[in-house]
Design goal:
Elements (H helix, E strand, L loop, with lengths): L2 H8 L6 H16 L10 E10 L9 E4 L8 E13 L4 E6 L6 H6 L10 H8 L4 H14 L6 E4 L6 H9 L6 E6 L6 E3 L2 E3 L1 H10 L4 E3 L4 E9 L6 E8 L7 E5 L6 H8 L3 H13 L10 H25 L4 H39 L4 H5 L2 H11 L2 H7 L6
Length: 397
């Protein structure tokens, strides 16, 4: 097999890359979480990252906004929207185009005829879908395939009313949203007043409702408000971290969360930033240069699959799972080993006594050892405390 075989595989629009990734993600979950337990901080994490490219002839390439470089800076590439699950590491990729190229540049782009029913044609169509719609489709697909969590964690870009209300409608409200918010024109109803973020902050400051979190050395306000369009009340958290002048705003649809608990859950979102960094630096995510859009999808998917394999290998070698298994069976193994040694010692002492009595000639113990009575006595010992230690589940003493 030569490299052309791999290129033909990557360029094949019939390859079900999404189903392959979902299958591996489900198998990963089955191995690391066989009991299907949902951790308290289990959360879906949505975020996107820029996959920079250098050639304008790549199919569906466009100029995408790079918020790291600058507010008005755009670069050539794709927006890679990713859904991650914590705990567990399963991801589903989706490439997006933003600002299209100029008409002359679009004519230079690679084009390919695809069967409209093929996986490649469907993924190409998704490239023009807005990120909110695509993100909601990812969440619904994850729930359909059996992935479970308690929260959805997003940044302020996904904090629209439509996104929050749709997420709350998935699985009859099983998912809560925690997100960062911008202090913009959006209105919240507090004590019968319609206030935006800045006005609400000033109202809370004037009322003297400021609190302090000693653990995080942070001053904060928390308030329950009505957010029109959501269909339920939400909890807002204004906070100012140490050495920062600006107040941050967070929203949670789970009103039972305290400020500290909300921060602990929202900090889980950082794991997807680590994921992007590791896949780009170590697994060459974004280094694929083929002009075929199918090859771009194949590159991202295989990178995510490789990352899943490496995470599983790392967890096994760090004894995160094997260690728990060892701790669970260690006591049973020790008890069984001790019980076996005690029983061997008892049989050895019994043989010494029988041999001594036989040599003295006072009684024919050797004949007694082969009698039905001796066998019955031995069976009684087998089901006694030593037998229970060896084979019983009640660990009788």
């Amino acid at each position: 097999m030569k490299k052309d075989t791999l290129y033909r595989l990557k360029n094949n629009e019939c390859m079900p890359w999404r189903n392959l990734l979902l299958t591996i993600a489900k198998q990963f979950q089955k191995l690391v979480n066989p009991d299907k337990e949902v951790a308290e901080k289990a959360a879906f994490i949505l975020d996107d990252t820029i996959d920079i490219r250098t050639g304008r002839k790549i199919e569906k390439i466009s100029y995408v906004h790079d918020h790291v470089v600058g507010r008005k800076k755009s670069t050539l590439g794709f927006k890679n929207l990713t859904l991650g699950l914590f705990d567990g590491t399963s991801f589903s990729p989706s490439l997006h185009a933003e600002k299209p190229l100029k008409q002359k540049q679009r004519k230079e782009q690679y084009t390919k005829k695809r069967d409209p029913r093929s996986n490649g044609a469907k993924r190409k169509k998704e490239c023009d879908m807005d990120k909110i719609t695509s993100a909601l489709a990812m969440l619904k697909r994850a729930g359909k395939h059996g992935f479970r969590a308690n929260y959805v964690l997003v940044d302020s870009w996904f904090s629209s009313k439509g996104f929050i209300s749709t997420v709350r409608g998935i699985k009859n409200g099983a998912l809560h949203v925690i997100c960062a918010m911008k202090k913009d024109f959006r209105k919240y109803t507090y004590n019968g007043q319609e206030l935006n973020g800045k006005e609400l902050l000033k109202t809370l400051q004037a009322a003297g409702k400021e609190k302090r979190c000693r653990k995080r050395n942070t001053r904060y306000f928390e308030v329950t408000v009505e957010y029109a369009g959501i269909g339920e009340t939400v909890k807002l958290y204004f906070c100012r971290f140490p050495y920062q002048k600006k107040w941050k705003l967070f929203l949670s649809t789970d009103e039972s969360l305290t400020f500290l608990k909300m921060l602990e859950v929202y900090s889980v979102r950082w794991s997807i930033e680590v994921f992007f960094k590791e896949t780009k630096q170590l697994l060459r995510l974004g280094k694929c240069q083929p002009q075929n859009f199918d090859a771009q999808i194949a590159h991202v998917t295989t990178t995510y699959i490789l990352y899943t394999f490496l995470v599983y290998f790392r967890r096994m070698n760090d004894y995160e799972t094997l260690g728990g298994l060892f701790e669970e069976i260690k006591d049973q193994l020790v008890e069984k080993n001790i019980a076996e040694r005690l029983w061997d010692l008892f049989e050895e002492l019994l043989d010494v006594v029988i041999t001594a009595l036989t040599e003295s000639g006072t009684v024919d113990i050797q004949a007694f050892k082969t009698s039905p009575e001796y066998v019955h006595i031995k069976e009684l010992f087998d089901v006694s405390f030593l037998g229970n230690q060896l084979f019983g589940d009640d660990k009788a003493a």
